[in-house]
Amino acid sequence: MFRFLIPFTPFTPFTPQRPQGGPPSGPPPAFIPQMPIGTFAVDPGAISNCLFRFTYIWPFQLRPFWFFPTFVGPRSVAGYRWNGFSWNYFGIDLREIRFFQCF
Question: How many structural domains comprise the chain?
Answer without folding.
Answer: 1
